Amino acid sequence: VCQPLSYPMCDSGRELGDFAVWVFVRKENRMAEAMEKVLELFRAKEWSYELDEENHLVRSGINGDNGEWKVVISPSDEDEVCLMLSILPQRCPERRRVACAELLTRINYGILVGGFEMDFQTGRINFKTSHPFAKGELDGELLKRVVGFNLNCMDKYLPAIMSVMYAGTSPAKALAALEREQKAKASKQASKALGAHRRFLNN
């Protein structure tokens, strides 16, 4: 289960420089309707966040089952798109970037919404989702689902990414190991649920 950190995992000032292509500075410092929907979600979940009104961004930090990472959300009524980035704090070592690029390509092939990306110059890895919407009509329920999907994807594949980056595991083996682990976990949960059902019937 992904939970927000009690403090923003963000560097002050310049941490957005590597992906400034996705950041649009607003001429007016105002709270647009789309931003309000994002803040409503954070408040409802009781997630801590940092609001950057000048750049129209919300930053936070997430503590998942498999690690911690940064989150940036940029909802724009003006551009009619809500962009979300889950940003891995660790940079992929240069010698492992080709292998990591293969891993991310393998992962992305089966993902329906969003995808992983890596900057070959810096080794920064993000999971990116973008949700288009009509101006002033960002749906709160759909936003919640998109945010949840983004966080779950980063958390799910984090072990495979770290294994390729630091343990020298091949992309294929890292994904195979992850699939085995997830199947074993699902089987264990199913057995636990079946046991609880049998106890209920026998009582």
Order of helix and strand elements from N to C terminus: EHEEEEHEEHH
Helix count? Answer: 4
Q: Overall 3D geometry? A: globular
Helix content: 40-55%
- Give a short account of the largest sheet: 7 strands, antiparallel
Number of extended strands: 7
Report the C-alpha radius of gyration, rounded: 19 Å
Label the structural class: alpha+beta
Q: Which spans of ≥5 residues are poorly predicted at pLDDT below 50?
A: 6-31
Beta-strand content bin: 15-25%
Q: Distance between the terminal alpha carbons, to the nearest Å?
A: 32 Å
Average pLDDT level: 82
**Which oligomerization state do the chains in this entry correspond to?**
single chain
Question: What is the topology?
Answer:
Elements: E1 3-4, H1 33-45, E2 50-52, E3 57-63, E4 68-76, E5 81-87, H2 97-108, E6 115-118, E7 125-132, H3 140-166, H4 171-202
Antiparallel strand pairs: 1-3, 2-3, 3-4, 4-5, 5-7, 6-7
